[in-house]
Amino acid sequence: MNQRAAAIHDHLSALADTTRSRILLLLDRHELTVTELCAVLQLPQSTVSRHLKALADSGWIASRAEATSNLYSMTRAELDPAARRLWLLVREHVGPTPSAAHDQRRLHAALAERRTKSQEFFSSSAGQWDRVRDEMFGDRFHLAALAAFAECGWTVGDLGCGTGQVSAALAPFVKRVVAVDASAAMLQAAKRRLQEFDNVDLRRGDLEALLPIDEARLDAATLMLVLHHVPDPARALAEVARVLKPGGRVIIVDMLPHDRESYRQQMGHVWLGFSEEHLRRLLGESGFGDVRIVALPPDARAKGPGLFVATARRRTEAGSFQTRHTGGSERTRPTGEGPQGPALQVRVHKDPPYRRGSTRTRPSRRDAWLPQLRSSIRSRPRRPRDASRTK
Q1: Sign of the four-CA dihedral 67, 73, 76, 79
Q2: Helical (H) or strand (E) element with 276
Q3: pTM for this one?
Q4: Where exactly are the structural domains of the chain?
Q5: Strands (E), 167-277
Q6: Angle, CA of 212, 187 and 202, to the nearest 5°
Q7: Residue 180 near residue 159 (C-beta atoms within 8 A)
Q8: DSSP state letters, 80-149
Q9: What is the b/e burial string over 10-22, where b = at least 16 CB atoms within 10 angstroms of the residue's CB?
Q10: CA–CA separation, 23 vs 25, rounded Å?
Q11: Superfamily of domain 141-316
């Protein structure tokens, strides 16, 4: 007898018992404990355990430990093709039997009891759930998990990274983090925090100057409590737009307007917060659109001013290379200009004058009348040469 024949006989032997077939019907779609199986099958634990062992030895089921219990489930994906075909045949004949129908009703009751226990816990713990959850998991786990919304292939800029707290939250979820700060001391602290990550690139640079990042390299950028330290936020945001890819997003967290003048001396704040109107104007002038600003809920333990989060998307036309035709040699034209001058330079080619239906920029009035002037000069009659001058 070959191995295939022996295997099919083993499978037939395992399924020959009606109780085992009933157990497999239950475990085909659900993970159940021995206690739950006993309640559904209305059999003693010793009987159920004996059948579970026989099915496990034959490779039909598997178990996993959870606390003090074992959860059993059917291993349909791991079965060989012959066993899968055999199970489909057995299920077709055992499923419609009265015993199997009673099992399904009792199974629904067992699953409902699971849900009831969970609901009872939340009903009794609703008032103290926040405290219980914080004691078990801390009060920041959900914030750290939100970084998983970032695409795994992204390159993200942590601009004004400080000690690297945001970079540490992003690094596990993205391809690369470029962390920039103007302070050497801050970068040293960030280096110590981020030493376990090999996808974080620390760089020293100033937001208002040329960031140490090439154009259109970042998929997203963050500025966390940075903008109020920047003397010229419009220039800084224009620089952020330069390093973002077209359509890339920026996330800004900063303070709402406040009157705490002491912050200027104590912490070097240049701006006492930003109003929504002010920030929308700054972002719009710097090449951003799709702006959304939301005030963050206050933390009862926090002593500082209220915060907001702003998101915006770099406009495609503000950062892409645009071609403008004006007739002549190549020259460079600034695009995406903000209040502090051009955000970047693009190449522009001068081509022949405008034709109807073309995509070229219409020429100026001077370009329109120059050909007519040349034509009128050529059509004037020439004066006869003075013969005395040619001698």
Answers
A1: positive
A2: helix 276-285
A3: 0.56
A4: 3-126, 141-316, 331-378
A5: 176-181, 200-204, 218-224, 244-255
A6: 40
A7: yes
A8: -HHHHHHHHHHHHHHTTSHHHHHHHHHHHHHHHHHHHHHHHHHHHHGGGHHHHHHHHH-SSHHHHHGGGG
A9: ebeebbeeeebbb
A10: 5
A11: Vaccinia Virus protein VP39 (3.40.50.150)
Q: Cα separation of 167 and 199, whole Å? A: 10
Question: 156, 174 in Cβ contact below 8 A?
Answer: yes
Fold classified for 3-126: Arc Repressor Mutant, subunit A (1.10.10)
Q: By C-alpha distance, which of 160, 171, 163 is closest to 197?
A: 171
Q: Please give the share of the chain, as a percent, with pLDDT higher than 70.
A: 74
Q: Residue 293 corresponds to which tokens in the numbers above?
A: 């600003």
Q: Are 136 and 150 in contact (CB under 8 A)?
A: no
pLDDT value of residue 215: 95
Q: What is the pLDDT of residues 67-77, one digit of tens each?
A: 778 889 888 88
**Is 50 exceeded by the pLDDT of residue 179?**
yes
- Look-up of token digits 């035709």: 325
**8 Å CB contact between 350 and 330:** yes
360 phi, psi to nearest 5 deg: -75, 155
Structure tokens at 257: 């307007």
Which pair of tokens denotes residue 47? 């009987």
